[in-house]
Write a structure and sequence with these properties.
The structure is a single chain. The protein is mainly β and 392 residues long. It has a single domain, classed as Porin, CATH 2.40.160.60. Helix content is 3%, strand content 62%. The chain has two helices and 21 strands. The strands form two sheets. It has a 14-stranded antiparallel beta barrel with strand order 3-4-5-7-8-9-10-13-14-15-18-19-20-21. The protein has a two-stranded antiparallel sheet with strand order 16-17.
Amino acid sequence: MTRRPWFVALLALAALPAAASAQSLLNAAGLGVPADPIDARSRALGGVGIGLQGAALLASDPAAAVGFALPTVVITAQPSWVDVQPADAAVVSTFQGTRFPSMGIAYPTPKLGVVTLSFESVFDQRYEAQRPVTVDLVNGPVDATDHFTSNGGVSQVRLGVARRVGNRASVGISAARYTGSVVRRLVRDFVIPAGQEPVEPYQAGGLWTYSGASLTGGVYANIGSFGHVAGSLTWSSGLEASPSSDTEGAAQSFDIPLQLRVGGTAVLAPGLSLSAGLTRADWSGIDGQLTQGTSVGTTTSYGVGLELSRASIFGRQAPLRFGYRKSDLPFVLNQGTPTESVWAGGLGLHLSRSGDFVRAALDLALEKGTREDAVLSESFWRGTISVRVSGF
């Protein structure tokens, strides 16, 4: 992460974009926006990703994988449509994009338990912004347009195992390695009046790659017929950002905090359940390591969801889900604490069954949400599609 002046100044482009393209312009702050590598069912139920009923392949809840009785592959895709409006501007920018937050495999074994391997997004740093500026050259001030792009993000490759402990509990542990890269580039195009000597566009940028490790442990316990509870803790080493050989700037290390997650599901009636979850992390230790701005300190994310598991469509089981989530985002781009609020709904479709086993399923979620700080407001629709195939 270079500290060159052009990079520090141009992060402010996200606050006043003339045109933009991204998952979120708040990606420009700190390490980006947390990508939350959770599946469509978790999204529809409030999006915290822990303590849900049944088997799940989630980085945030490693013990939940114990419910897989057959080898299973899960792939998740996520398109989004975003409207951005700065607080002091009437212009609304609209953009869209698609990412793949997670994909993985769970494989039950007779001795180890359920072994999992997954690839997940962690921080999204994809965005584009541009704005008109006036620059003083030798012959006087001239108009110019700054184009700033950032493409990439931080991901993880994760290996885990989940085992039953007695009849009512399970434990899970997973180890992950950070990976990924980001390419950033600034191009400044000058508008030179007729008759004057043209000026070549100014260009700067570089490539950074990420490395590091994390470890997550989790527990999951049934409470009779009333439901169950779960908890997990994630520790991370420093996240190392290394510039390529032709990139100016020094390598840098970022402190990723401990992340605590708790959640559970209560059975309200046959076929009707209520889930809730909470995530907390203290990001204040990373403040002195950021290129611009600060963290918000301790962040909290909570979500609640309702699932009607006995619903059906055209004779096929199709659970209906509804949820709400509110999250603090960890990095400050402008002023104030950036937050995200989301209302969600979705359903699951059991495409193929063999006795009590679901061989193929499709989960869908649709979210309507907002992200905002003191200067910037984003309104978005986000879809999530998860495909699950078992028994291959």
